[in-house]
Amino acid sequence: MKLSEILFEEFVPSTEENVEKAKAFIKQKWNERAKEYGREEPTDLSGACKFASMFAKLVFGGELRGNKLHQFVELDNRLIDLTAGSSDVVLMKEPYKHDKRFWNNPEHKRSMQSCEPRAKQWAEEFVRLYQNEVIKDIV
Question: Is the pTM of this model over 0.85?
Answer without folding.
Answer: yes
